[in-house]
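anyone seen this seq b4? input:
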Amino acid sequence: MLQIMDREREQSLSPLWRMPFRPMFLGAAVWSCIALCLWLAQLRGISVPTVRGGITWHAHEMLFGFAGAVVVGFITTAMQTWTGLRAPTGRPLIALSALWLAARLGYAFAVVPLWLPVVLECGFFLFAAVLAGRRILAVRQWRNLFLIPALIAFAALAAAHWLLPGWQRSAGLVTLLLVTGLITIFGGRVIPFFTARRFQLPQRDKIALLEIGSHITVVALLLAVGFNLPKPLWGWLALALALLQLVRCWRWRPSLIWREPLLWSLHLSYWFIVLGFLMAFLAWTGIAPGLEGGALHAFAVGGIGGMILAMISRVTLGHTGRTLQCPRLMPLAFAALVLAALARIFWAPASNGLLVAVCGWLLGYGLYLYYYAPMLMAPRADGQAG
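predicted toks r here
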């Protein structure tokens, strides 16, 4: 009887509000394209009246507006699988999405007092922490308990990034590393699983020391950066993470993936994270200080941007009841993100490197929206709930 009532309740909802990944993935993809176009216009000297703009706005929107929305959408959706409890739908999901959208508009328009979008954005992350935390605690799933402080940290960092000018750069860097760290955790769970499942192979047993060492080193790097410990320490921790990720990647059967866009896109994005840690080691230890900007964009564009595109493409297919078959031009979208990352890392921004990077991003996420936006706004193809 309860299943029938749940089914009838869901049928009364627009498909967009039936699972958190739907509005969060859609909003994040659309907003990333809008924000990058506004940022490029400003860099090219095109005046955009009333828009706040600036490097702080650009960094904030890509970290908290784009990546933050996907993190929240992924976590609150996956909670249903992890805990067996229904994911947020209907009014709670509408409220969560409204907080995110209102914060984006508040930050965008300079006429809005800054405190207002800060409060809205903090509310967004804290509400997500409550939605996820209630489910984790209800079933005592301690393995995922770290997600509650992670979401609370997003709220605190979002406020610090705007309201504490002296800590602005540190807040942005910690957030970048926090998102990267979450990718190392969840990527380590799903990439080897997806790869083994696709080729009907047994998943290799994880080496506990390798996995725990990776997670502890991520936390150590976050603390070292957050408390502004000496930069060489950051560098050596980054090197340790690079080596740990190299071993993990090698055990995920990378030789099998090249005919499967939904797999090679995941693996390649993860390798950009390895590259980022190696470049960060060289920059932060003083061996090659000029590589710091490239390292940060290896994380931001290649690692986070590429991983998000690869992951939301696969998750959208699976959670809308479709076969895991890549749409025809999506390999081009994944390749465009690789090109965008390479251009932003190795091509001087003062030349056309930035333009190439932005165009690659717009092509990648534009193709995602072309193929997947209709899926996100339609009922599941298999008629099931979600």
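Confidence is low (pLDDT under 50) at residues 1-5. Residues 168-198 form the longest helix (31 residues). kinda curious what u guys think
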